[in-house]
Prior knowledge:
By secondary structure, the protein is α+β, with helices and mostly antiparallel strands.
Amino acid sequence: AMIAIWVKVRIKAQMRAEILKAIEVDALGSEADEEGCVRFNVLQDTSDENLYYFYEVYKDEAARAAHRAAPHYQVWKAAAHTLDGPTERMEAMPVFPADPGYWAKRD
């Protein structure tokens, strides 16, 4: 079953450039290099510039495990010192769009 993950991340303001670079490496690498990662969006809160949300969708648990083993994920993990507190995660299953073609990789 597909897995959708919503991660809430608070960053240290003085380390914004460093963490955003690491997040970009992970997000873009995930979509480009991982067959099983069908979505990796990074959003900034509209009222708190130090609060970010990641929306990730994986084809299945094996795809999520592959993500955690990928080199770009290690870039993100190495930037953990730039976070202001622990991350918060929520997991769900995508319901709509129900058409599997919607979740197919696009060029």
